[in-house]
Every structure is written in C-alpha cells, then in structure tokens.
From TrEMBL:
Protein name: YndJ-like protein
Domain of life the protein comes from: Bacteria
C-alpha cells in the first residue's frame, strides 16, 4: 500500500468514525455518549470491512453505502425534527424525497417520497407522533434504498477506471476547470496553463477539422449534405436560434440545479424557455494551437447569452479513431473534472448527420472524470442511463438541428435549433 493509499484509508476511517458518532448520538436519545461510541465503532467496522473486500476498479460495496446513507439520514432527521417539529410521516417523506432525488432516475424520484412516507406512517403507528425523527429518517432512507435495489437492478453509475493514464481512455476529454468557475474565459485560462497560441473567437473554424475524420463502417461522410458538412467544418460562419422544449416533470428539479449549480459554476446553463432565448445567443469558438504545430489542438465551442455573455455551454470538441471508426467526444469541464459525451456518427436520410450515444459499441456514452492535478491520472465513472442524440439536417433549404436528451429512457429535453448563415460584414 502506497503512502497516498494509506492516507486515504485513514481519512475514510476518520470520516466513518465521526459520522457514526453523530448518528449514534442522534439515535440514542437520552444516552448520546453511549450511542456515539456504538455508532463510531459500527461505522468504523463497516468502512474497514468494505475497503478490505473492495477490489481495484470497484466502488465500495452496496451494503456499506446504504449503512453510510442511513447514518447521514439519522443526523439530518434529528436536526429537521428539532428545527421544525414535523411528525414522522413528514420526516419520512422528506428523507425519502431527498434520497430519491439523488437517484436521478425518474422512477426513483417518484418512489423516494412514497417509500419514506410509508416508513414514517409505520413509525407513527408504532410510536405515535413522538417517534424519534432520527430513527424515522434513517429507516426511510435505508428502506427506500433496499426497495430500489430490488426494483432497479441496473447500476446508475459504474467505476470504469481508477488512476489511469489519459491515453488509456481515448473517449474521455482530460481537460478540467482549474478553479470553481468555468465561464466563457475557460479556453483562455486553459491556454495559460497548457501553453500554445490562444485565438479568441477564431474566424472560419469548425467544431471538427473534417467530417472525413469520422468515417467508419456505419458512416460515409461523402453522403452528407454540403450544408451540413459546412456547418461542422466552419461552424463560425453560422448563428443559432434555440427553442428549448422541457418536459414538465423535470422542470422543478432543473430550476433548482440551474440556480444552485449551473449558474454559480458557469456551465450547462440551458435556457428554461423560448422567452429567455429572445435575449439572443452568442456562439464562438476559441482555439489553442500547440507550439511547433500549425494544427489546432483545442477547439472550445462557447455559447452564451448575447446581452450579458452569461455562459450557456462551454464544450471542448475532439475527434478520435478506434477500430477504424471515428468518434466525436465533447468534454464539458467542471472543477477538477470533466463530463464527457462520446458520440457515434450515423447517417440521416436526406444527407443529415446523427451523433448519438446510443450504441452497443463500448465507447459511446457519458463519463464523469476526476483529473488528478499533479499526476494527470484519470478516475472515471460511466454514467448509465443518460443518453443524447444530435440530428443536424436540411429542411426546405434551411439548416436545422434537434438535440434530444433522455434519462433511463424518459425524454426530458429537446433543443430545437434553426441555423442561419451569418450576414457578411
């Protein structure tokens, strides 16, 4: 075991001890000292056994994660009960709702509060309104997670690789945000870190160098409409009008995400409605050309609101080849990491181009990666259930695009683009 691994294991045991002590104190009622000691011992044992049995490339065992989530829920339930005086049904429903929301899958979002309320109702029948909120919350979360595991067998995320070199994962874009904010100045800041020639708002540049780089058994670039090809290879010649189409079920959650995550982060800040898009959308590509090279090394497609330059998307577009196929990987930098969408090109009837993550091939998909700032090693999770498809096509002589997203088979957003050639100035 390396010193770094030993340090992480010790940190994990310390966190388990503190979490267990707080949970034990919350659950024990009138004997918090004894409860804290028992809770700390139980969580330390759970952490030690789980880590000892954990194999390389695996996340901690499911049962240990459930125990930890129950311990955290006990603390939250105790605090919520003290602050609000809520009864067991309300506490259980709230705890289940939070656990379900963290599951992301729409079915889990719906199941969480229902399972939590049922646990709270059982506590009310057994102990009345004075049922301990810490125990109610812990029971609700553990019960929900056990039920969800029975109903939904496929994993939500999977540990794909741990501390590997970037060249081992060609479908991951290994570029992170080096601060807590991404924003429209990301490529400039990246150039300062990497070196090379930075070109803001580059002229006559595309998000890909050539569609020919994407050729493969399933896709012949020669069949693409010239206007579609021009858009990909000379994206800056065009401007985009966006009409977002959100499904109603996802809007409340997205509003919270946008307020507390997307805007403070300066990334993935999609408009809520067409009224917002009337502010105008500015589209530009910033590039970095490595020293001793004439070829662009980094293409950052930056979309922002025209009136304030508030970022909508900051994406790094790359292409690569594997097994005689071309792929597009789009990396969205986040602090110390990257969310990458790797897409397979396919033909669309009428000369259009489809980029999709839906494929039985091993590379297409979505990946969340932590990038070690010192070694540049990657630890990557596969995000199962998230899917997207981008259709770019010509309709009645006009360039259009539909960008559809789904979560576990449930569509939640389609971005409809009308793409116009910029007027010559």
């Amino acid at each position: 075991m390396t010193p770094e691994e030993r340090g992480k294991r010790v940190s994990g045991l310390v966190f388990a001890a503190v979490t267990g002590a707080l949970a034990g104190a919350a659950l024990s009622g009138r004997r918090p000292g004894r409860g804290a000691a028992f809770g700390a011992a139980a969580l330390i044992a759970t952490e030690a056994v789980s880590r000892a049995r954990q194999k390389p490339g695996e996340i901690p065992a499911w049962w240990s994660r459930v125990v930890m989530s129950g311990a955290l829920a006990a603390q939250a339930g105790w605090l919520g009960g003290r602050l609000t005086g809520a009864g067991p049904v309300a506490v259980g429903a709230a705890a289940g709702a939070v656990a379900g929301a963290l599951g992301m899958r729409p079915q889990k979002v719906a199941l969480g509060p229902a399972a939590g309320a049922a646990a709270g109702a059982a506590w009310r029948l057994a102990a009345g309104r004075e049922a301990p909120p810490a125990a109610v919350a812990a029971t609700a979360v553990v019960g929900y997670r056990a039920l969800a595991a029975l109903l939904f067998r496929d994993p939500q995320v999977g540990l794909l690789a741990e501390r590997v070199r970037p060249e081992e994962l060609p479908f991951v874009v290994p570029l992170e945000a080096r601060s807590g904010y991404v924003g429209t100045g990301y490529v400039r800041e990246l150039a300062e870190a990497l070196g090379g020639t930075y070109q803001p708002d580059a002229a006559d540049v595309g998000i890909v160098a050539s569609l020919d780089d994407l050729a493969g058994p399933q896709f012949d670039p020669a069949g693409v409409d010239p206007l579609v090809r021009e858009f990909y290879e000379h994206t800056t010649r065009f401007r985009l009008d966006i009409v977002p189409e959100w499904r109603l079920w996802v809007r409340p959650g997205y509003l919270l995400y946008r307020t507390f995550v997307a805007r403070p982060l300066g990334q993935a800040n999609v408009p809520m409605n067409q009224r917002e898009t009337l502010r105008g959308v500015r589209s530009r590509i910033d590039t970095i050309t490595p020293e001793d090279s004439d070829l662009i090394g980094v293409r950052g497609w930056i979309r922002s609101f025209a009136d304030t330059d508030e970022p909508i998307y900051v994406g790094i577009y790359t292409t690569y080849r594997h097994d005689d196929r071309g792929y597009v990987s789009v990396g969205f930098p986040v602090p110390q990491g990257n969310f990458t969408a790797t897409l397979l090109p396919e033909p669309r009837p009428g000369g259009g181009l489809v980029l999709t993550s839906r494929s039985p091939l091993p590379h297409p998909g979505h990946y969340l990666t932590f990038i070690d700032p010192e070694t540049r090693d990657l630890t990557t999770l596969t995000v199962h259930g998230f899917a997207e498809q981008l259709d770019v096509y010509v309709k009645n002589g006009e360039l259009r695009a539909d960008h559809a997203f789904s979560l576990y088979g449930f569509p939640f957003l389609v971005l409809h683009y009308t793409i116009h050639r910029k007027s010559r100035s």
